[in-house]
């Protein structure tokens, strides 16, 4: 889905200790990589290499302060479906190519996101689970055995 040259910018929501933001930079060294996190759990020297906005992703006024767009936005925040939905509503228009929601917890969370996210799940969403990946899935096909669920939303 993603070629090395196709990613010029990425925003990660939920920096935590900084491992993922560093990994994105290793994958796409010439890309602009930025982050958002409410807490500064990472080593502050990370801010020497990355712009990290320190606020809550569900704060709509703070979201408006980010005026640029990104090829990819990755929501790796608190993994709660309500927060994931609010965060999507604040940032989806800033994703030029893909919006990724990591760690959708529980089948009920997936049902809620499928119900409330304003995207066509049958055309725009691929779900990745421990059992593989599917497009055009029904919630019944995703089982509680799946240890993780990642929604990969094509915003083009």
Could you characterize the architecture of this molecule?
With 156 residues, the protein is an alpha/beta fold. The chain has one domain: Rossmann fold, CATH 3.40.50.150. Helix content is 25%, strand content 26%. It has five helices and eight strands. It has helices at residues 19-27, 60-63, 81-91, 106-116, 121-124, and strands at 9-13, 32-36, 51-53, 70-75, 95-101, 125-129, 132-135, 149-154. Strands 3-2-1-4-5-8-6-7 form an eight-stranded mixed β-sheet, sandwiched between helices. β6 (125-129) and β7 (132-135) form a beta hairpin. α3 (81-91) runs parallel beside α4 (106-116). It is globular and about 40 Å long.
**CATH fold name:** Rossmann fold
Multimerization state:
single chain
- List segments where confidence is low: pLDDT < 50 over at least 5 consecutive residues: none
Structural class: alpha/beta
- Quickly count the helices: 5
Order of helices and strands: EHEEHEHEHHEEE
CATH class: Alpha Beta
| Overall average residue pLDDT | 87
- How is the biggest beta sheet arranged? 8 strands, mixed
Please give the number of β-strands: 8
| First and last CA, distance | 13 Å
Q: How many domain regions?
A: 1
Helical proportion, percent range? 25-40%
